[in-house]
Amino acid sequence: MPTTVFVVGSLNADQLLEVPAFPAPGETVLASDVLITAGGKGGNQAVAAARAGAAVVMIGALGDDAHGLLVRRALTESGVGTGWVGTVDGTHTGTAVVAVEAGGENRIIVASGANARLTGQDVESGLAGAAPGDLVLLQLETPVEVVAHAARFAKERGATVLLNAAPAPADSGCLTTDIDVLVVNQVEMRAVARLIGAGGDADGREDVAATVLATSRALDCVVVCTTGAGGAYVNVGDRVAHIPAVRVTAVDTTAAGDTYTGYLAAALARGETDLTASLTTASAAAAVTVTRRGAMASIPYAHEIDAAPRPHPYTDNTQLTTKG
Fold first, then answer.
1. Catalytic residues, which ones?
2. What is the structure's pLDDT at 87?
3. Model confidence over 233-244: pLDDT tens digits?
4. Among 125, 193, 224, 263, which is least packed, fewest CB within 10 Å?
5. pTM of the model
């Protein structure tokens, strides 16, 4: 029976502003262009998993506005199931204002809107069909208590749980042993490690590896930590593998991390156990994303990855074993 990636998460309309440089406090800068497009961590990751070849079901909430229609259409066009994406009357769709400077870096401000109205009952309804072999993908742009409930509900049904702890968590409510795979960047890694008492000063290569191991032991899960141009670190047991980053010229880093996470989720749902191979593909997909503008619109399809640059060959064959 085919497996499914269930994504519980945020859905936003992104207002992308291209600026020559980020404004200093009190400064006004003129944007050269503006683009309104579909986004949100949950939506981006759902689209990435679908474009990587997975069967994907989205569980989330939209407002009863034109932006909600735009986001729903973008999901559907990418093959994401939207039967469990609700519409909240009298509420605006989540909105992100994304400023992108000339070098491709971005700064983002988010108004949660309908995302804050997602409930535990919404999650239970959407995940009722989850079964062993399926994967449930979570992020932290919806209420933390709903995320924790989704992880627990998914584990009760035997599904694998992948948490992308982004944005960086402010409390440990979502950091439970229901998690099978934790994906974080270096900033989020520090926040998670401090919250669970696993250190948190992951600056150098050795520090990142040590923090990955300490966090993995504390949460009893696999930890993937991305470090931008420094590549990614992943552990199973007491071994840590390093996957180099792909070198490209970035024009917009929006959705790069979401592409990476969505491609990893798709690989795990297919039953792939060689994590270094899966993360190498995820890195190649993210590298394509940063060469394009926008959020969902920038996410590549699987056939585009075949011709994309890859990191240097890896030598570690790290295997994934999830908790029962």
1. 258
2. 97
3. 999 778 899 998
4. 125
5. 0.91
